[in-house]
Amino acid sequence: MRIERSIEGLKIGIIGSGLSGLSLASLARRKGARVFVSDCGAFQESRAEQMVSMGFDFEFEGHGPRLWESDLLVLSSGISPSAFPVIEAGKRGIPV
Known about the structure:
By secondary structure, this protein is of the alpha/beta class. 32% of the residues lie in helices and 18% in strands. The chain has helices spanning 19-30, 45-54, 84-92; strands spanning 11-15, 34-38, 57-59, 72-75. Strands 3-2-1-4 form a four-stranded parallel sheet, with helices on both faces. Strand 1, helix 1 and strand 2 form a beta-alpha-beta unit. The two termini are 21 Å apart.
């Protein structure tokens, strides 16, 4: 059985700005969510330009305060379940 819930209006934090992260962000946006992409890697101008053109807010080089305002975090592929954002989300009661 599959249960679907609307994510319309939710603040969704996407962890990772690679191909899968941007695909997740795009899907969440199409479903009506407010999307914020957070990546702990170094600033990448081409990736930033891509996110600007897609209309996403984002951050590089760490996970700042805005990420913790999310209603839900979604992990892009390659993000370990033991990564800092996952552990911190658990402490703050944010579903992952």
